[in-house]
Amino acid sequence: MLVGIDVGGTTTDAVIVDGSRVVKTAYVPTDHDNLLKCLLSALDELVRGIDTRKIERVVLSTTLITNMIAEGKTDPVALVLIPGPGTNPRDYELGESIILDGAIDFRGNEIDKLKEDQIKEAASRIRARGLSRVAVVGKFCQRNHSHENKVGEMMAAALPGSKIELGHRVSGQLNFPRRAATTMLTAATIDSYDLFARDVAKALKERKINSPVYILKADGGTLPLDKSVQMPVETIFSGPAASIMGVLALTDPGQSSVIVDIGGTTTDLALILSGKPLLSAKGAKVGSLLTHVRAFAVKSIAIGGDSAVLVSGGSLSVGPHRDGPPLCMGGNGPTPTDALRVLGLTSIGDLSLAEKAMRIVAGSLGCTAKEAATKVVDAVVDKIVLEINGMFREWEQEPAYRIWEIMSRESLSAQNVVGVGGGAPTLVPLVADRLNARAVVPEYAPVANAIGAAVARPTLTLNLHIDTENKMYSVAEDGLTGKVTDQKMSAEDAERLARRLLAERAARLGISEYAAEAEVTYSEVFNMIRGWSTVGRLMDVRMEIPAGLLPSWERC
Fold this sequence. Notes:
Elements: E1 2-7, E2 11-18, E3 21-29, H1 35-47, E4 57-61, H2 64-70, E5 78-82, E6 97-99, E7 103-104, E8 110-112, H3 116-128, E9 133-138, H4 146-158, E10 163-166, H5 167-170, H6 176-206, E11 213-216, E12 222-224, H7 225-228, H8 238-250, E13 257-262, E14 267-273, E15 276-277, E16 285-286, E17 289-290, E18 299-301, E19 307-312, E20 315-322, H9 336-342, H10 351-365, H11 369-395, H12 399-408, E21 416-420, H13 424-434, E22 438-440, H14 448-455, E23 460-467, E24 472-475, E25 481-483, H15 491-508, E26 519-530, E27 533-545, H16 551-554
Parallel strand pairs: 1-4, 4-11, 5-6, 5-9, 9-10, 13-21, 21-22
Antiparallel strand pairs: 1-2, 2-3, 7-8, 11-12, 13-14, 14-15, 14-18, 16-17, 19-20, 23-24, 23-27, 24-25, 26-27
Helix pairs in contact: 3-4, 8-14, 9-10, 9-11, 10-11, 11-13
């Protein structure tokens, strides 16, 4: 049996899956001030009467990191940058940072030395600000770690007890500002995430659940919880990823669909093309920061079943804020759920209280309660349709979409609108009708996210860069470097090296059983010529264990 738990904005949902059969479901209200408590409450309700010895795997989808960042509850971080020539870090919108001299070029050669007095002065400034977490990031230091290592060592000596994150250990991908943002966010969240992971592990042990525990990442893959502590920001947007994996699990394979996940607080939009979720080429965007976190191309809009309904100056608005549950469920004000109850589109809550909520709206609009309910539902549908049409324009700019369009000889349109989440059964048919598309609301749609988490398999990506003239290689994901000896290495040799390195990384992360399924998704060779001779090659290979479902689910 497999357990999936999804911490949503309004409710925390949990399921037990046996093969392709949903054995049991559970729901509890989400307490954003204590995510661990509501997660364990859902688990306790779920496993009541279940032999926990039969549980083989537990997967969590949590909003912990997303909430910490959105609510400004992250730890303060001193950001130390070594940008080298040609860039102005003040343009990166990373907040206040300390700039050091020194430079590494794109091939990993030192072209400007560090200044030790400047590093010591920077440490004094950090100490004076009372900061104990430091992120050190140098441009191109993923290809030569020496500058980041030196600054990190000096900071550690000058700031005893401080915790220092180095950019090449967090991400070795190109794009300096994204690597800086990812490193800074890692330093800001790693302690709280580590505490969360240890508390979860302890709580499961107390419940005599000894199976492996995984966390769902933003790219729809799972990672052992204890290993995820090294990369907490990988778990941002795991909620939207869970809904995508849930749709893959609950719908026919190979389809192209727009996903609309309607919760109590937000609605998440995503896209599946011929059975494959669309990935964002730019990585996850956190506020104004672009990161190196691999993520699906999703958008979250602030509208849901519990969104507050207001009338001002005769104009109706729904959301973006939430004042609590619907009035029909004991809340304080009108919501779309109250409107749906009045129109007979849902049986949730007390009808008399829902009518009271719509009378409040109707009094300001000068209409009947039923007319007010219709206006509220129309406003919600209008907002979702508007956002879907806007997302089409964004999705069409993704390289993966353009390749799909060429290969499939199709253009993107909302052929299927697949609805999941608590609001899907009532609202998605209305959205699909407006888009002239087919509405699909699968069985178990309200707990699709938890199902998606339960049956998602691990993912892993490895980007390998080889410079045969300099006789070195580097791995973008963890800054690993090594030596090569063949200056005329072939593309096949490079791919074999990438496959070996991916297998080794998968083993370190505890997911080695899936390494054999890795695919080469990008390979490029650039010959370097001097005079009339090839003096070396620059080679780039990307290998991926793609997102997918566990075989136990697919076989059934």
